[in-house]
Design a protein that fits this description.
With 309 residues, the protein is an alpha/beta fold. It has 2 domains: 111 residues, HAD superfamily/HAD-like (Rossmann fold), CATH 3.40.50; 126 residues, HAD superfamily/HAD-like (Rossmann fold), CATH 3.40.50.1000. It is 38% helix and 15% strand. The strands form 3 sheets. The chain has a 7-stranded parallel beta sheet. Strands 6-5-7-8-11 form a 5-stranded parallel beta sheet, with helices on both faces. Strands 9-10 form a two-stranded antiparallel sheet. Helix 6 links the parallel strand 7 and strand 8. Helix 5 runs parallel beside helix 6 and helix 6 crosses helix 7. One of its GO terms (molecular function) is phosphatase activity.
Length: 309
């Protein structure tokens, strides 16, 4: 593991043609003449909403397609791998629902449920034909929702997908623990006695999507991750080659599911990509010494890129 220096940074620029960033970075660097792809375990936002937020923050990304969310990967997996065209039951957020609609899927389950469990059972027996269940982050998770998902999954022909299995994600208050999608997935898989196919990092489906969609060369691609995305200062944005936005993006909107050493760096290691750990997030240098997952390079902040450029 090497600390990033100006010489090493310039060497990486020569070697790499694709830079994968987690969407939850404090900032990410727009590298001239290089392909930038944002890869996130977050299923709460659509490609379009992420793309628009990045534009408001002054970051240049080639297109909406260069934002890869687990919602998008779920939909693509249903359509192109499973070749499923039916209705989908969702424990998740409105953003996941929007992506399903964009891919042509009808769905149910999103939102607040104020129904008794017996009514859920009756609604299923009346012909609520669903053969695919997706579980993601859902702040309105309830017993009734888990009951319905579990009942659908009692059918062995019903597909079971999870956006990601991150245990928790960071919030504005470090003393408060925010359960991640993994908590919702654990509830459903425990009662269903089935294991889901997990879309997000460090699992294979999201890598397969990126590799096929962008035809990346593994030897010329680097994954940079482990931090929380929020609006940079105007000075920093200018140094990095972006234009300062006139409209500030509220930080709480951009704090989403966690990106830990076990996701971004493990994702790179399991797929043969080079990896760069950013220490401005939840993972500190001391954590690396106690973990089997070791990045190729590390730096204090993505802002260091600006100083090396």
């Amino acid at each position: 593991m090497q600390r990033l220096s100006e010489t090493l940074f310039r060497s990486l620029l020569d070697q790499m043609d694709t830079f994968l960033f987690d969407c939850d970075e404090k900032s990410f660097y727009t590298v001239k003449n290089k392909r930038i792809i944002l890869v996130t375990n977050n299923s709460s936002h659509t490609q379009k909403s992420y793309f628009e937020k990045c534009r408001k923050m002054g970051f240049s990304i080639q297109s909406e397609e260069n934002v890869v969310t687990t919602s998008t990967v779920c939909c693509d997996y249903l359509r192109n791998f499973l070749q499923y065209s039916g209705k989908v039951y969702v424990i998740g957020s409105p953003g996941l629902g929007e992506e399903l609609v964009r891919f042509g899927y009808s769905h149910l389950g999103i939102g607040v449920w104020l129904v008794h469990a017996i009514h859920v059972k009756i609604s299923i027996t009346k012909g609520d034909f669903v053969k695919a269940v997706i579980v993601g982050i859902d702040v309105h998770l309830s017993y009734a929702k888990v009951l319905k998902a579990t009942t659908y999954l009692a059918n062995p022909e019903c597909h079971f997908l999870a956006t990601n299995d991150d245990a928790r994600f960071p919030g504005l208050h470090p003393s408060i623990v925010f359960p991640g999608a993994g908590a919702m997935v654990a509830a459903v898989k425990t009662s269903a006695k089935r294991e889901p196919i997990v879309m997000g990092k460090p699992n294979k489906p999201i890598f397969d999507y990126v590799k096929s969609r962008f035809n990346i060369d593994i030897n010329k691609t680097i994954m940079i991750g482990d931090s929380v995305l929020k609006s940079p200062s105007r000075d920093q944005s200018a140094r990095c080659g972006g234009e300062a936005s006139e409209e500030e993006v509220p930080v709480p909107e951009l704090i989403q599911e966690n990106s830990e050493l076990q996701t971004d760096i493990a994702f790179a290691k399991s797929t043969g990509l080079k990896s760069l750990l950013v220490l401005s997030g939840n993972t500190k240098l001391d954590d690396v010494g106690t973990n089997d997952i070791v990045p190729d390079y590390f730096t204090d902040s993505v802002a260091d890129f600006c100083h090396f450029a």
